[in-house]
Amino acid sequence: MILVTGAAGKTGQAIIRVLLKRKKSIRALVHKDNQIQLVQVLGVQEVIAGDMCSQKTMNQVLQGVRAVYHICPNVSPEEINIGQIAIKAAQSAEVEHFVYHSVLHPQIESMPHHWQKMRVEEQLFESGLSYTILQPAPYMQNILAYWNDIMKKNKYAVPYSENTRLCSVDLEDVAEIAGIVLSESGHKWAIYELCGTQILSQIEMTQILSQYLGHRVDVKVIPIEEWEVNARNKGMGDYQVKTLIKMFRYYDRFGFFGNSRTLECLLNRSPTSYATFIERTIRERL
Ligand SMILES: NC(=O)c1ccc[n+]([C@@H]2O[C@H](COP(=O)([O-])OP(=O)(O)OC[C@H]3O[C@@H](n4cnc5c(N)ncnc54)[C@H](OP(=O)(O)O)[C@@H]3O)[C@@H](O)[C@H]2O)c1
């Protein structure tokens, strides 16, 4: 039995689909009752709603599991606390394998959501548990949050320079690696950077998008203040807004670079390119 936390989120669902294809028996932890059905529809029979911040809940859901795939909620101010609770529960349940969904370059202190993941990794090193740490680059799928807007306005709005170069990874490739490390031997105590092959500027990304859509899409650079007003109007929390602003400033100043060789070796094929991801997305959505 494998426990997947954060199971109703986009990462959780992608990983569950791969584990089910591999015929793994899964227990899924979702946040709220109304997310249970979403995960049951994927084919998971044992879906539990509960709070990852509760030691009692985590102790219960980890009982009787062989492995855990731990996904913390995105940009959570509680990441270190949630990590500590999950590790403690895994220790008491004597879980054989703890897989932690971290992030590429958790060492970056000026991005608090990265730095917090590094502190959780540090706790894992000292936990006595057998662990694997996956460090994915930003997902190619992040553009989907703006997809409808892009389609309506033919503009891709970003709060950093159009020349900002970012690496990315297809979440489907990340999920495939989750399936591999939870099924095959030889991955304990490994830390894997999971990154696609290209580092693209925002202009290059829209050029690929334009090519596959068959019409022009341009980058629109918006001031961070405008992004902040929109995010707050949509109900984003203060910690998330402030943390993402730090991330945008970091991206603007330094870009974000990673190497694809580890992912390529693990997949035993070339990681999905941005063009393939865009072509697949357009095919699925249009
Ligand atoms: N997006 C990227 O590019 C990227 C790249 C690398 C790593 N990551 C990491 O991937 C992880 C998952 O990201 P994601 O975008 O898949 O997240 P997500 O879609 O926001 O999913 C997180 C899930 O956790 C649930 N949740 C929130 N608080 C909870 C709590 N206290 N107890 C139990 N469940 C709770 C959420 O439910 P509600 O909807 O009810 O809150 C949601 O279903 C994050 O740690 C992120 O840092 C992301």
Structure commentary:
The protein is of the alpha/beta class and 286 residues long. Helices cover 46% and strands 16% of the residues. It has 12 helices and 11 strands. The chain has helices spanning 10-21, 36-40, 55-62, 79-92, 112-125, 147-153, 171-183, 202-213, 224-233, 238-254, 261-267, 274-285, and strands at 2-4, 26-30, 46-49, 67-70, 97-101, 131-136, 155-158, 165-167, 190-194, 199-201, 218-221. The strands form 3 sheets. The protein has a 7-stranded parallel β-sheet, with helices on both faces. The protein has a two-stranded parallel sheet with strand order 7-11. Helix 5 links the parallel strand 5 and strand 6. The mean pLDDT is 97. The structure holds NADP nicotinamide-adenine-dinucleotide phosphate.
Q: Tell me the fraction of residues in β-strands, as a range.
A: 15-25%
The ligands found in this model are: NADP nicotinamide-adenine-dinucleotide phosphate
Rounded mean pLDDT score: 97
Strand order of the largest sheet: 3-2-1-4-5-6-9
Shape: globular
Number of strands: 11
Helix-strand topology string: EHEHEHEHEHEHEEHEEHEHHHH
Low-pLDDT stretches: none
Q: Radius of gyration, Cα only, in angstroms? A: 19 Å
Please give the share of residues in helix: 40-55%
Distance between the termini: 38 Å
Query: How would you sum up the major sheet?
Result: 7 strands, parallel
User: Which class of secondary structure composition applies to the elements?
Assistant: alpha/beta
Please give the count of helices: 12
